[in-house]
Structure formats: structure tokens, C-alpha cells
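for the writeup, i need someone to sanity check this before i put it in the appendix. the sequnce is what the collaborator sent (i think, or maybe the updated version? ugh). structure was predicted straight from it, no edits. if anything looks off just tell me and ill rerun, i have time this weekend
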Amino acid sequence: MSALTEPAFPPPPPKPPSEPKAPRATYLWPFAIGAFVIGLVLLVGSIAKLIPAVWGSAVGMCFLGVIIFALSFIRLPTVPKKVDEQPLSLLQKLTGIFFEPSRVFRNLREYPLWLGAFIIICLLSAIYSFAFVKRITPERIIEHSRQQMENLGTWAPPPDVRETQLAAQMDALKNPVQLAASTLNAFPFLFVLFAFAAGLSLLGLLAFGGRINFWQALAVTVYSAFPIIVIQKVLGLIILYLKSPDDLHPILNRDTTLQDNLGILFSPAEHPVLFVLFSFIGLTSIYGLWLRAKGLHLGATRASSGAGWGVAILLWVLLLILVVTVTALFPASIA
């Protein structure tokens, strides 16, 4: 009797070759290190009293460097690239976002590079902020802050603490070094804002059945905001020097003097909630909403036009609810 033998099974099929993983965003490391070094220099200079104390700007720049370095470990998107598709230059994207945004967003889908546009946005914001303080004068800004504190009632700090804070703010606004350093706050503030909006866009598209990488979402967020901020800051600077400083509001005009929305129909002092509510209905706000929807549709790995519009409108509504709620709780903040 022949020996029992185990039945022969065919060898398992070879595993399909795994797709190579996309690289990480290590190209951001020089910017992250540079931001951290700038913050460190400001911090050391403030401690050694070589420059006036600029603690907020120093900590903000250090934080910016750390958070960008941490996020750089998120991998770039893996999308099938067209043979003839090459990354657009920075100049092509900055001009194309005004005249041919579809081409720019399609290119960002494969090459989500956003750093150049982000730096320009921050520089424009810093220039406008610096010019606004010089134009409207520190004295008027501090006097308005004093009135706001008085309107807070029991929420306001004690009079001695209040005057100490106002005196420190006055010195910071009058000192050119501190004023210039404070404009650096635009970099960490705007990056956190854009990164948070990108994260919400990513989650929103996933909920609508789409697919988008974080860097794609961030590039779309930055470039959809770029035309709006350029229009607001450039035209705002022109209007800033055409109008009398007495006609400028220390709070309402601190971001731009351009008034292109229905908020002009209401007095912020008498109807603060209605003023803020209708301020969301304007030419640049509608233009920005359209750009964001188009960018999420064309800049994502996979997303329908309806998903792009759904997420864009959802973010617009969430921001509207947040701002209206804060205004209803603290109406004196825009009085």
C-alpha cells in the first residue's frame, strides 16, 4: 500500500506590487525652521532687552514653525498625473486664479503648492495693518479701546489694571519696532485659520462622499482666499489714504476699508447683529464662496460639483453663526 501523501495545492498567487507611498511635505522644513528661528531671535532679544518686548510675536512665530514642521509629515496626495501636466509657476497661479481659476485648481490637485500665495497674503495683511495704525493714530485706537472696556461693565478689569493695559498698548503702537513685530502675528494667525478651514473642508468632502488630501484642501483654501484678500487689502489701502482718518472706524476698518456688502444699510451701534449678518452678503463674499466651491470640486482627488458647493456653503453658514453669536453676546465690540 502506498504511503499516504498530502494533496498538492497550487502555490498562492503573487501579491500585487504595492503602490509607492507619496513623499511627505519636507519642502516646508526650511520655512518652518526659518519661522522658528525668527521667533527665537525675537524671544532672546526681548529677554536680553536688546529690543522692546515682543513676546506675542516671538511665541507666535515659534509656534508657527513647530506646527508647520509637525504637519509636514502628512504625505502629499497620490493622484495619477497627466503626462503633459506640469506644475504652474507661482506667477501663473497668482494671475491665473483671477482669470482662469479652473486651470489653477486642477493643477493644485496634482501639485498642491500654496506657500508662495500664503506669504503674499500675510505680507499684504501686515502692510495694511501697519498703515492703518499710522493713519488712524494710536491715540484714537486706545481711546476707542477705553470706551469699549467701560461698556463691558462688570466684565471690565479694575480701573488701575485697565489703565496699565492701555498704557502698554499705547507704547506698543507708538514704538515702530514693536508695531512692525506685531505685524508678524498675521503669519501664525492666518496659517492656523487656513489649516483649520482645510481640515473642516476635508471632513466635509468625506461626508459628501468625496476624497481630498489635507494639502489639497489647504492649497484650495489659500488660493480661493487669495483674490479676496488682494482686493480687500489693495483697494483698502487706496481708500485708507483717500478718506479722512475721522471717517475710519478703529474696529470695523481694521481689516479693510472696502465696504461692498449690505452691512452699510445698518448702523453697527444701533443694530450690531443685523449689521454683521448682512455684512456676509456682498460682492467679495459671494465671489469667495464661488471660488471655494469650484476649488473643492476641481482641487480634490474626487469630488462632485454638488459636494464642493455643499461644503463651501456649510463653512460659510458655520462662520456666520459663530460671528453673529459673538456679536449678540458682546455687541459693544463693534460699536
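The CA atoms of residues 95 and 161 lie 49 Å apart. Residues 22-76 form one domain.
thx in advance!!
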